[in-house]
Amino acid sequence: MENSQVVLRARPKGMVDDSVTELVSSSRPLCGVDEALIRVGILSIDPTIRTWMDDAPGYLPPIEVGGVIRSSGAGVVVESRSERYKVGDIVVGLTGWQEWCIASRSNVFSVLPSGMGLDLPTVMNVLGSTGLTAYFGLLEVGSFSAGDVVVVSGAAGATGSIVGQIAKARGAKRVVGIAGGPEKCREVVEEYGFDECLDYREPKLSRRLRAACPDGVDLYFDNVGGEILDDVLLSLAMNGRVVLCGAISQYNSQEIVGLKNTFMLIMRRGRMQGFIIFDFAARFAEAQIALAQLVLSGEVVHHEHLVKGLAAAPSALNLLFTGGNHGKTLVVVDDTVVLQ
Amino acid sequence: MENSQVVLRARPKGMVDDSVTELVSSSRPLCGVDEALIRVGILSIDPTIRTWMDDAPGYLPPIEVGGVIRSSGAGVVVESRSERYKVGDIVVGLTGWQEWCIASRSNVFSVLPSGMGLDLPTVMNVLGSTGLTAYFGLLEVGSFSAGDVVVVSGAAGATGSIVGQIAKARGAKRVVGIAGGPEKCREVVEEYGFDECLDYREPKLSRRLRAACPDGVDLYFDNVGGEILDDVLLSLAMNGRVVLCGAISQYNSQEIVGLKNTFMLIMRRGRMQGFIIFDFAARFAEAQIALAQLVLSGEVVHHEHLVKGLAAAPSALNLLFTGGNHGKTLVVVDDTVVLQ
Questions:
Q1: E-strand spans in chain B?
Q2: How far apart, in Å, are the Cα atoms of B92 and each of B114, B164, B208, B209, B244?
Q3: Which of the four, A178, A334, B184, B295, has the lowest number of CB atoms within 10 Å?
Q4: Which residues of A touch B (CB under 8 A)?
């Protein structure tokens, strides 16, 4: 009984290539007492996976060399020796990049309620870490309030597109996106309903931001870090808030871009704050109900970019950094699970 | 009737030299309706004055070329046509670097209560912007609570030394200073009662900080910015707070040091926040009572570095950046006022 797995062969320098990961065949894990055996159906491809590959301080320990790549995912319970799971349940948790995994006391998987009216890719996107990150980052960490001028980078991305739409739905005065290239910028405005979207590949971003937000930026949701973050700091409004969600521009780079404009936090009495979605775990259910309502009402439009087959997971991760994806990137490991 | 003034002749590049300021003689201002004429006694020499000399975005407009250098100070009311002031009152406000000034409706000066038992230099230090900055920065912006591990840069300086002493008085678990040179470090520990003080001129500050705060830094009060701030970020504890008070290491430099470690704000769910003391103006009286009690009880030890004569104000400002001062730098314009 085989279990295909993608393991970390060497720590990456820059993008993930063939020297970094390897597809190996292991034996299917055995289901112990208080455990369940999960057939993995789908993987959530998140930028944070790239940070786990580095031997650097993080909110979770680095993936060990030789170990399975850590990842969120969903699957179906095939065998259960736990009261928590029954055969046929769809569960979500840290599956890793593999075909089979074990749900145990130490890596609690949550069981999806049935009859939500949302398919599994939508759940993995809007109700998964992507949507939850957007929800708590904007509303809690960013202390969003109606009337705010909101700027979102990575605006065409899975998280960014949801952030902007929640802000619009909750009464933002103005939502401005930042994305790469005219096509993505058009999508951000036409599809996700942002008021404007600036192309960071064009010159003079900081000047264009000033024109787009003449009264300053009340809340900046930062998905990218680096020079774009530095540019937005220059437009911070009084008591402006910068939500540090990720720094995707920096994850593959060997030379970190230093922030030069943090003095604006003094000038504008601003706040820059990081967060990790796990900190809000106790409130996930509340957020998922709100997010499901936003999807069902049509206020949050979403896209999933489905990549077929476990073997394609490393290249799917790279799509996040090249911008080659359209919406939330998910790897379908077993489509019979996804179609259940 | 003359009025000696120090005016801005040209915007500085780096330290203030003879080409930047000029001592000129003007005529003494006339006291209009609702105004008072003030004989300036003492000037508060603050790092922020250097930022006002630049043509850069700030929390107040830049000092105009040709204008009197903006500065806090204290003086005595010599003539009054306002109900707010009576002749003989000692008042504090934005006097500017000059011998005489006008208190009006637009630049309200506050009258010092008499009988406080504190001399004017002490008032200008601990009850002035220095002590207020330490008080609100630590307790409000930094959300200090008893049991915190606190790190303070510029620890031998006027603000830093008060921050550490308030933290000790309010029950910090540990207070670690950062200062320049062995003599200042010794002073921070022996005189101001910090638990330890690290010399930033010695190598490997980030490693020494980790050793000094093995459980991480709950609250960092940053007076200096630049590389020291970047080093402390690496030691941030979970939910750590960075209070941006000033960036004295950067004010004279043409090339800003970029912060590379702000990713730690994500990893540690940290917060970095700037402030300007004027934001707390409505609560100054409350803080001044608390600060006066800390001085009278001996819990806050303080030093004033008195420089004689208005003409010495520019070189007194430079002392803040060379570290040539000892405690709060004040310029005595007229010592008959100070001795009143």
A1: 2-8, 21-27, 36-44, 72-80, 90-93, 100-103, 110-111, 149-153, 174-179, 196-199, 217-222, 236-244, 271-274, 304-308, 328-332
A2: 13, 26, 42, 39, 25
A3: A334
A4: 57-59, 225, 230, 234, 244-247, 250, 256-260, 262-276, 279
**Residue of chain B minimizing CA distance to A60:** B267
The class that CATH gives domain A129-278 is alpha beta
For B127-186, the pLDDT digits (tens) are 998 999 999 999 999 999 999 999 999 999 999 999 999 999 999 999 999 999 999 999
ipTM over 0.95: no
CA torsion, points A220, A222, A224, A230, in degrees to nearest 10?
A: 50
Location of each CATH 3.90.180.10 domain in chain A: 2-114+303-338
Round to whole Å and give the CA distance between A288 and A123.
Answer: 9
pLDDT at residue B210, as a whole number:
97
Q: Which CATH number fits domain A2-114+303-338: 3.40.50.1000, 2.60.120.200, 3.90.180.10, 1.10.287.3510?
A: 3.90.180.10
- Residues 6 or more apart in contact with residue B217 via CB below 8 angstroms: B149, B150, B151, B209, B232, B235, B236, B237, B240
Residues of chain B with CATH 3.40.50.720: 129-278
> Do the chains contact at A276 and B266, CB–CB below 8 Å?
yes
Of the pLDDT bands very low, low, confident and very high (cuts 50, 70, 90), residue A74 is very high
Which residues of A are less than 8 Å from B274 in CB distance?
262-271
Whether the model clears a pTM of 0.90, i.e. scores above it, the answer is no
Interval A152-180 mean pLDDT: 97
